[in-house]
Amino acid sequence: MSDLQAADTQNEGDSVVNARTFVDEVKFNTELRKFYSGHNQNSKKSEWTDEKIKNVIKMIENYNKAKVLGRRPTDKEYYHAKKYDVMTFSDEKVLILKRKSQQDPVIQVVPSSKYYQTILDAHVATGHGRRDKIIYDLKDKYMVPVFAINIFLQLCKTCLSKKSFPKTGIVVKPLITDDFNRRGQVDLVDFQSSPDGEYKWMLQYQDHLTKFCFLRPLKSKEAKEVAIEILKIFLEVGCPNILQSDNGREFTASILKEIVSLWPACKIVNGRPRYPQSQGSVERSNQDVKNMIRDWMVDNNSNQWSIGCYFAQFQKNSSYHSTIGRTPFKALFGDDPRCGLTSTYLSKNIISQLEMEEDLETFLKSVNDNEHKTVNDDGNITSDKENLCKTLDIATESIITTDS
Questions:
Q1: Distance CA 15, CA 301 (A)
Q2: What is the layout of strands, in order, in the sheet containing 213-218?
Q3: Can you give the pTM of this predicted structure?
Q4: At what angle do helices 279-300 and 3-11 cross, to 10 degrees?
Q5: d(CA 177, CA 168)
Q6: Which superkingdom heads the taxonomic lineage of this protein's source (predicted)?
Q7: If we measure between CA atoms, which residue out of 333, 178, 188, 328 comes closest to residue 241?
Q8: What is the tens place of the pLDDT at every residue in 203-252?
Q9: Where are the alpha helices (DSSP H) in 110-248?
Q10: Which DSSP letter does residue 73 get?
């Protein structure tokens, strides 16, 4: 029985909600309490409770009032105002890390009561990514301690069930690529033991430099079908100089022949096979994709991996890659992908109330009418409206107006 079949059998009949309970929230909070019990309140690892956040917000507000009134703030007010700031949206006040400029990301200080859900969202978004991927996903949005992430991962049943590939200790001389679309790598992943209707194979195409990948379900591994899917990708992002595959040069040659028959102007060189020592890394890459698809199936209580592969593609491209030191998406496009308003620092309860563009306009106007002023160290005053406009990256000047 394959991993995908095992996942289906294990979760058959479960609801979507039950399928997502791969980490017990009670156990997570219990382990968190044990960790904090070993540190006093003055420790750098002291707990950010809801009450502590409210107190810090109050001290920052008192600091801002003191500067406006010309009185001297207390030492605690001064200390916290140097490290943190407050932003207000509608009737909700949020504590954030102090920013040096308007271009810096807005990083919200998350109370420990919300660690579970915050880490869970990042863990699912990265395809059950490990610590570094979760840290990268959260670093520009939320302040969550690394030890909380480690506790979460130690309790994830899905991650614990994954197969691990032992390191061989063999050092492989890497292929050097200096630009996007210099070298493309294509592999076929066998799903014959877990067919999704007519789909029994999956194509994985990856740019060698950026590690940006494309996943496509296939009904067969015939050269013509593979070539058509690759051609669709090339017509979207361009084609490489060299096409490389571990399925053999003959297989690659037959694909290139089909591509040229459909696109005569396209000339691609048949690349040499990768070294035998590199097969372990290829297998790990294929296994990573399989794991992401399996996790998507478990989380969504679905056996349609032909759809899940597209979500796995997004997760893989938007997750931190240690080799290139960023996400493949950012390596290719210069910025990390956005997922609508959830990519902003607006809270979930605010986002849930926004359905139409008019709703967003109404919310922005309410921020304009009740904007919170902040006195910076240089004496300049900035507002939450200005911060929000920059984060949403929309022309709010034409939207936010005051009644005449």
A1: 7
A2: 213-218, 201-207, 183-190, 242-245, 269-270
A3: 0.71
A4: 20
A5: 24
A6: Eukaryota
A7: 178
A8: 999 998 899 999 999 999 999 999 999 999 999 999 999 998 877 788 88
A9: 115-125, 131-138, 146-155, 157-160, 223-237
A10: P
